Amino acid sequence: MKNKFILLLAILPSLLFGQTINSDKLNAYFSLIESKNLGVGSVSIFKNGREVYAKTFGQKNIPELSYKQHTKYQVGSVTKMITAVLIFKLIEENKLRLSDRLAEFYPQIPNSEKITIQNLLGHTSGLGSYVVKDGEVWVTEKVSDKQIMDLIIKQGISFEPGEKVAYSNSAYYLLTKILEGKYQKPFQKIVRKEIIKPLRLKNLTSFIPDQKGVFPPYHYNGSSWSPLDKEIDFLNVVGVGDVSATSRDLNVFMNNLFHYHIINKETLKLMEPVLGKEEWGRGIALWKFGGINFYGHGGDTLGSHAILIYNKEADISIAYNTNAERIKKEDFIKNVIDLLYDREVNLPKN
């Protein structure tokens, strides 16, 4: 009897979800978001490897906004999941090991003789976050690789490798540089060869100068949307937070990843956080919504925000992008999940 009860708990999320998407409830939610001017963005939902729901909303509330069907969003640190996948592809090919030390590549970095590739992937290196200097995001104008490396060295370490978890943009900057060294080509070309072309993604790209076809960021000024004065110069965060994509293409990537078409099952397991022990894996985080486990990553720039998550039991993934946010992305995606699982949704009063 006990075993049957455990089995029921294991399959409960899938049973609660069912096999169909309640489009009417989702449409009503997004219509309300649009009518109340609570955000601008796009959502894509995949079930069993195919798109079963897609919605763009709020764009009409920014009259000057110019866009097309496949205009992309900056996805911020969702980029890191792509970077981690590329690192694990090298590991599968025996060109890199999780145990390799940072000193092999960048001996000038503090504690590099102790920090491993695994530490860098899992935010357990002790390194800091170079995008912030003196308490502010300073990479809004192009800076040199030397300036970034000098800051990483200056920031030093805050703990010994493996001692705890602390989110590190610096770690993923270094992973990107290691990737470029191994492939002997820039990150953008690596992504194109290893991800974009094999998956036939037409609306996902690593940043290039004078990039077109990407939603600009906006902020709410109390009565309407205004263009953001400054955004990150994405050449400063290549491999860390530079990718732009449509919600659909993010979901294509996610489903190919979790259906083992990019890396194998055993390798993906190494990326995932260990349930009950970790919230951060090695390029993939654990997201919990009402007792349901999702795997994925979030991303934030100064004005754009994204979440890309996947639930194994129901084989469902959700990609959410916004360039004009009034509801925090975590709260927004929770509302979407509650609607999918037929739960009550509470919208903010103000």
What does this structure look like?
This protein is an alpha+beta fold. The chain has one domain (19-340): Beta-lactamase (3-Layer(aba) Sandwich), CATH 3.40.710. It is built from ten helices and 13 strands. It has helices spanning 2-17, 23-35, 78-92, 117-121, 145-155, 169-183, 187-199, 247-258, 265-271, 329-340, and strands at 39-47, 50-57, 73-74, 132-133, 136-137, 204-205, 218-220, 225-227, 244-245, 285-289, 292-300, 305-311, 316-325. The strands form four sheets. It has a six-stranded antiparallel sheet with strand order 2-1-13-12-11-10. It has a three-stranded antiparallel sheet with strand order 3-9-6. Helix 3 packs across helix 6. The radius of gyration is 20 Å and the shape is globular. The model is unreliable at 1-15 (pLDDT under 50).
